[in-house]
Amino acid sequence: MPKTADPDVRDRLIGLAAARLAARQPVSLRGLADAAGTSTMAVYTHFGGMPGLWHAVRDAAFATLAQELGRMSPTDDPVTDLMATGSAYVTNALTHPDLYLVMFDARGGPDHPDSAGTTFAVLVTAVQRAIDAGRFAASTDAEGAALELWAMTHGLVMLVITEAIGEDDLNRHLPEMAIAAYAGFGDDPVAARRSVIGIVPFRQRSP
Amino acid sequence: MPKTADPDVRDRLIGLAAARLAARQPVSLRGLADAAGTSTMAVYTHFGGMPGLWHAVRDAAFATLAQELGRMSPTDDPVTDLMATGSAYVTNALTHPDLYLVMFDARGGPDHPDSAGTTFAVLVTAVQRAIDAGRFAASTDAEGAALELWAMTHGLVMLVITEAIGEDDLNRHLPEMAIAAYAGFGDDPVAARRSVIGIVPFRQRSP
DNA sequence: CAGGTTACATGACAGTGCTATACATAGCAG
DNA sequence: CTGCTATGTATAGCACTGTCATGTAACCTG
């Protein structure tokens, strides 16, 4: 009996929100509805309100990131792949800093476990490959190691986005931090250092 | 000739803003002015607007943190002191998570260099002590090493505050990450590990 | 004590997210 | 194919936000 909601409107709202975010324009309920050619109520039927919209934007951003990281073609060196994954992660974050902030907005509330989870799983898999290849100690906890790599990368990225440090600081220090982490996971420091060569720069140019 | 602004009103506004932040109450211009027993214009004469108020709150938070970290009494092991500094940093952040978010709010704009700078200087000094004591390689860049330790700690803290990971994850992984970093700075891994013992837990209890 | 300058009070304005109500439309029952 | 019903959407208003123009009163200087 019901009239079905138009999923196109939903996608348009999410896309427009991300676009205004990227353009550093204020993203407001009325502005979004006008741009989408609908009324403010559409946001409530589809998302239940602005927080719900932000939640959907965040989920979409994580899905895009997971897809982006997932389609990287692995080389014969799993540690090099790990470093390349980190590089892609940083590039994504610094190319869309406002979207990255929404992804990690503290006012986001608990999300579906598959939002950030699937993205994190990509990293865990990459770590597991390094373990299986014997580069990391067999006793290494893949999830724990992935969490540590994620945390250090996230920290540098956040400091860059909040302008506490410069982008050059990130390019200078992330390789060194990664090498130290890899060594801590039982990798040969020399091999770890070799795996990092040629990965930088993390981003081609400023936007 | 002029009528001088009351610095007491200024301090009261900053303190009330921080208090409402800690109480997780919405901090609005009118609510603040009412609680401070003044009018909304006081915020404009003292801070030029709400962004200026947030800026002042952030500066005050950094000053408090620098003072808190600075009055830690050094032991005979500079690396242990470094770890203790990190522990105090984490405790401060997780005890006042909303204030921590304001300190690193991306919409804060460029701040006076002495705001976060003096806090960071405390960490640089602690690293320099480890270098002078021969625990870190003499070739170690004190500022660079401090930045790396800061970034990894900040990353873990932010992930905890945004509820991407749990507080127990931080307690579990920060020591390991620090040990790996210390080793990368040239410290003996065994000595590094010994320096970390007894530092955890980073926070006594949940708030 | 007078003058001028400034902090602070009042009120209005544009904008925000949210929601109660009215309307239009899509889908199923007959 | 018709009519009912359930649902998405439009409209308008509410309470709230930060900002600023104006007015008043207090202060310091000369």
Could you explain how this protein is built, in words?
Two copies of one chain form a homodimer. With 207 residues, the first copy, chain A, is mainly α. Chain A has two domains: 1-48; 59-196, Tetracycline Repressor, domain 2 (Orthogonal Bundle), CATH 1.10.357. Chain A is built from ten helices and no strands. Chain A has helices at 7-22, 29-35, 41-47, 50-70, 78-95, 97-103, 114-132, 142-161, 167-184, 189-196. The radius of gyration of chain A is 19 Å and the shape is elongated. The relative contact order of chain A is 0.11. The model of chain A has no long low-confidence stretch (mean pLDDT 91). Chain A binds chain B through residues 97, 101, 104-106, 108, 110, 116, 144, 147-148, 150-156, 158-159, 161-165, 169, 172-173, 176-177, 179-181, 183-184, and chain B through 97, 101, 104-106, 108, 110, 116, 144, 147-148, 150-156, 158-159, 161-165, 169, 172-173, 176-177, 179-181, 183-184. Chain B binds a DNA duplex (30 and 30 nucleotides) through helix 3.
Order of helices and strands of chain A: HHHHHHHHHH
Cα(first) to Cα(last) distance of chain A is: 50 Å
- Could you name the CATH homologous superfamily of the largest domain in chain A? Tetracycline Repressor, domain 2
- Find the CATH topology of the largest domain in chain A: Tetracycline Repressor, domain 2
User: What's the overall geometry of chain A?
Assistant: elongated
- What portion of residues of chain A belong to β-strands? under 5%
The oligomeric status of these chains comes to homodimer
Radius of gyration of chain A (Å): 19 Å
Q: The biggest beta sheet of chain A, please? A: none
* Most extensive interface between two protein chains, with residue counts: A-B, 35 and 35 residues
Structural class of chain A: mainly alpha
DSSP E strands of chain A, number: 0
Q: What is the number of domains of chain A? A: 2
Query: Can you identify the CATH class of the largest domain in chain A?
Result: Mainly Alpha
So how many helices of chain A? 10
Low-confidence stretches of chain A: none
Give average pLDDT of chain A, whole number: 91
Helix content range of chain A:
55-70%
